[in-house]
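Q: Hi! Curious about what Intracellular septation protein A looks like structurally. Here's the sequence.
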Amino acid sequence: MPSAEAFGQAECVDREATERRDEQRPTSAAGSGESLARLLGGRSAAVDATLPPVAFVAGWLLANQSVPVGAAAALVVGALVAVWRLARGDRPRAVVLGMLGVAVAALIALRTGRAVDFFLVQVASNAASALAWTVSIVIRWPLLGVVVGTALRQRTQWRRDPALLRAYSLASWVWVGQYVLRLAVFVPLWWAGAAVALAVARVALTWPLIAACLAVSWWVLRRVLPADHPGLRHPRV
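A: Let's find out. The predicted structure is below.
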């Protein structure tokens, strides 16, 4: 799931400039100078998330398939990533949760003695995310609207705009598809015991897939909103 975590100074300036452009062009359906990637950020966080699994598999291979060495490598890299994220201003809660995920994955692999079980947390989180996003759409609280509305400090105003609610609901299905696609790749590889292939898939299906998901869901939002709608920042309450 994308997060609205800690925008950098340059990105804040860019957002302010985008807001000014939106105010000057209120008839644009979604704001041609805007994008979900710009609103939500996330590239660096997505890239950082792939480093501990890569370190785990690298340590496991270099130590003649030693799970303890792989787990130690993942924990060390995870700690370094956590320090780096704190230094650049990420929210401590997000950093702690990221490190906790690495620690739990390492403990599971150590407990079972199987390298592929390091990726069980990822499999479970994608299954839970797919279910959560689907339920959110069904109950008319699409999570894409919740995340973007929080990033824009709109609280629940977007839900009182029927056009925005419909657009967020349809665009949220793109995110459901993202999680289902990962499961379709991860589960067979885990079942086959392909640890190296899982690490490669984890990298390939993290930032590149998130970037594609952001682009497609943004296209859906722009496509679904009426041409005269003032955009995501201006719900018609």
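A: A fun detail: The chain is about 70% helix and 0% strand.
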